[in-house]
Amino acid sequence: MVMGESAENYLETILILKQKRGTVRSVDVAAELGFSRPSVCVAMRNLREHGYVTTDMDGKIDLTREGMEIAERIYERHRVLTDWLVSIGVSHSQAAVDACRIEHVISVESFSCLKKMLTGGDK
């Protein structure tokens, strides 16, 4: 499966909600993203079929190892890019919107160099 922006957003949202709430269900993802429950159910089925998430009998969603790796990578990009944009004078709300767009298209090389420049090392 070629990981698209939509799938990355779902995985990132699951990670964030899991950190905030401990457990995540499709209804939580739908509310967070402003999507319909049926749309989220279709996305969760696709993510489950490709091995990025699991769901239990109670409907709780968990990220697989591979899903977690992708979610953490995207969320790190989001945080670093948001912080950088804010540091150059962009409002936090606009920085978050722009970071969400950039995080999906920036290359590994460019992000690595930007992160290195911002942190002063290879953190």
Structure write-up:
There is one protein chain. This protein is mainly alpha-helical. The chain folds into 2 domains: 5-68, Arc Repressor Mutant, subunit A (Orthogonal Bundle), CATH 1.10.10.10; 70-119, Iron dependent repressor, metal binding and dimerisation domain (Diphtheria Toxin Repressor, domain 2, Orthogonal Bundle), CATH 1.10.60.10. It has helices spanning 5-21, 26-33, 37-49, 65-87, 92-102, 108-119, and strands at residues 53-55, 61-63. It has a two-stranded antiparallel ribbon. Helix 2 (26-33) crosses helix 3. The protein is elongated. The model has no long low-confidence stretch (mean pLDDT 92).
Write the layout of secondary structure elements.
Layout: H1 5-21, H2 26-33, H3 37-49, E1 53-55, E2 61-63, H4 65-87, H5 92-102, H6 108-119
Antiparallel strand pairs: 1-2
CATH superfamily of the largest domain: Winged helix-like DNA-binding domain superfamily/Winged helix DNA-binding domain
CATH topology-level fold name of the largest domain: Arc Repressor Mutant, subunit A
Radius of gyration: 15 Å
Unreliable spans are none
What is the residue-averaged pLDDT? 92
Q: Which CATH class of the largest domain is shown? A: Mainly Alpha
